[in-house]
Amino acid sequence: MKGIILAGGQGTRLYPATLSVSKQLLPVYDKPMIYYPLCTLMMAGISQILIITTPHELPLFQSLLGDGSQWGISLSYATQERPEGIAQAFLIGETFIGKDSVCLILGDNILYGDGLINRLQSSAQLTEGATIFGYYVSDPERYGVIQFDQNNQPIDIIEKPSTPPSHYAVIGLYFYDNQVIQIAKQLKPSARGELEITDINRCYLQQKQLRVEKLSRGTAWLDTGTHKSLLDAANFIYVLEQRQGLKIGSPEEVAWRMGLIPTPQFTKLATKQIKSGYGNYLLELVNA
User: What is the separation of C-alpha 245 from the centre of its chain, rounded to a whole number of angstroms?
Assistant: First the structure.
């Protein structure tokens, strides 16, 4: 399975902070925002990843992330000239995806929770159909909401409903088989001129090939698209890291623990970052 991180857009809800830089390059407490979705894909066992961003930000992402070899993965890059919807990612990434299945994650989504790795790795085994995730929220009218039947099976997905049929919002993490490319090609722009990811999910739903995983109460899903949600996410990461003494969203640690890089390479990466304290944390892992 291939992975795509959609890190384009203009970040207008975060103006003026994003007037000159992509929101996915902003820090969420002690790490760049994009580290978190990157680690999500790595934990799923996905090692070939495409970063889609704007032409202006492309060199900045390349400078930050390189080709991924330092973490034992392969990173490629593509540009989104104009933001024309989440589903556009499959058209931009068609050559990259090839004949494989694909996981798409939005660059401003952060996931954390016990048992999450097992769910991610299980979903990454998908070869047919699609898997999306539902998260219980108090304000479902702000999201794409899943409607379930009496047997708890999904029957519809409604974008920002005035009367939500449930409290389960669709988060920005999607697993699809290869037919997603052809489905995306057949989409027509919505009223707001975008290729909607909801329309892709509905297509799978109509084919009875959509699986919905409800995330448990112990899982945190953070969308960092506004000033308040960005601050909330930073505070969440800070509190957990201070309380547990463990980092969240560290690609070096994920790569090392998953056996993608050997200890000498891990130690070298850590040593380069000693002054910030981040490197000290990584070195302590080796001696723990």
Answer: 24
* 3-state DSSP helix/strand/coil % of the chain, to nearest 5: 40, 25, 40
What is the C-alpha separation between 187 and 202, in angstroms, rounded?
11
* Dist. CA 240–CA 157, nearest whole Å: 33
Phi, psi (rounded to 5 degrees) for 171: -85, 170
- Nearest Cα neighbor of 173 from 133, 229, 129 is 133
Query: What secondary structure letter does DSSP report for 247?
Result: -
Q: How much is the CA Rg of the chain, to the nearest whole Å?
A: 19
CA distance 17 to 5: 21
pLDDT at 288 over 80: no
Residue 191: its pLDDT value, please?
85
Model's pTM, two decimal places? 0.96
Question: Would you list the DSSP string of 12-45?
Answer: GGGTTTTSSS-GGGSEETTEETTHHHHHHHHHTT
- pLDDT tens string 47-75: 999 999 999 999 999 999 999 999 999 99
* pLDDT tens for each residue of 200-259: 999 999 999 999 999 988 899 998 889 999 999 999 999 999 999 999 999 999 999 999
Helix locations, 94-147, DSSP H: 94-97, 116-123
Rounded Cα distance, 239 and 284, in Å: 20
For residues 158-171, average pLDDT: 93
Tokens found for residue 31: 């790490």
Compute how many other C-beta atoms are within 10 angstroms of the C-beta atom of residue 151: 6
- Do 110 and 221 form a contact (C-beta atoms < 8 A)? yes
